[in-house]
Amino acid sequence: MCTGLPRTACPLRLFALCILLSHAAAYFGLTGREPLVFLPGTFANEPPNGKAHLKRCEQMTLTRRQKRLCRRETGLAETLRESVRLSLLECRYQFRNERWNCSMDGRGSLLKRGFKETAFLLAVSSAALSHALAKACSSGRMERCTCDDSPGLQHREAWQWGVCGDNLKYSTKFLKKFLGQKRVSKDLRAQIDAHNINVGIRAVKSGLKTTCKCHGVSGSCAVRTCWKQLSPFQDTGHLLKYRYDTAVRGHSVTNSATGETELASPRRHSNTGPRLRPTELVFLEESPSFCRPSRYSAGTAGRPCSKDTSCSSLCCGRGYNTALHLTTLSCHCQVRWCCHVECQTCLREEEVYTCKKH
Length: 358
Prior knowledge:
The protein is of the alpha/beta class. It folds into 2 domains: about 290 residues, no CATH class; about 35 residues, no CATH class. About 35% of the residues lie in helices and about 20% in strands. The protein contains 11 helices and 10 strands. The strands form 4 sheets. Strands 1-3-2 form a 3-stranded mixed beta sheet. Helix 5 packs across helix 10, helix 7 packs across helix 8 and helix 7 crosses helix 9. The radius of gyration is 24 Å and the shape is globular. The relative contact order is 0.12. The N terminus is likely disordered. InterPro entries: Wnt, Wnt_C, Wnt_CS. It is found in: Secreted, Extracellular space, Extracellular matrix. GO terms for molecular function: cytokine activity; frizzled binding. It comes from Sinocyclocheilus anshuiensis. Its main location: secreted.
């Protein structure tokens, strides 16, 4: 069940809403105030086989059908956890200088609304799952999928595929099956959620590149070994952050030709105009300021900021406090024979800025 979440979101069964992100604090023990570097890994070092694998599937808040898929796919539970780690890390990194910094505080309430931030969470969550699944296939962590061995390139005879490529084709197919997206709902919120999910998947797909290595005498490149490789997930995060910054407010219109309700953007001026672009994030309502504590965030009081770039925005006009902190660093380093570096420890005084409460 999708406890505490809007009915329109439940048929999508998106793990970000109904499964993992809404329960990430329980999985990782996060409070929303930890530095990113202290986020723990996925699972303990135990093999994802047999009873351990089945236990992991049962521990997750999945639908009955999703649990069946999880039990059948050895390695899926670990991949789901990895996708949560990816999405949390990337969300916090991309919003580290924003008023809403992707903190866990109040995320359940935020997911019930149609804000730009909700759109980003949906997109980055589906992107992380798509990315993690493709990587799990190429690394051999899932039994039912292997490398992406279909090059689809011209002059195929000149190419030799010898490295395991990221299997995004299987990932996308399995993701649709796992999320259960069969038909588009007439509900506007459900349409927007489904659209933003697909924006995340498309963002991952846009980062799929062909990587090659040359083989031959004196670098002649007589034979090339090529494989499909996904870009680092941070590249996907940067793209989705741009989509967030340029998100549009959606609304519904009736198609005069079919009589069906469709999702449209403000650029559409008639029932026959162009549809919403498949790459742009969509929101329903304007976001709160996130300046003060609310059910959507903890506010910005006490947040560290940069005096020259972010304090004026983050502190919401309340001003900021300045404090001097002593930090240690290595200095006066010298190379000793052989292959050894000796350094002294120096103290450096730094100014630290934090947003005021009042």
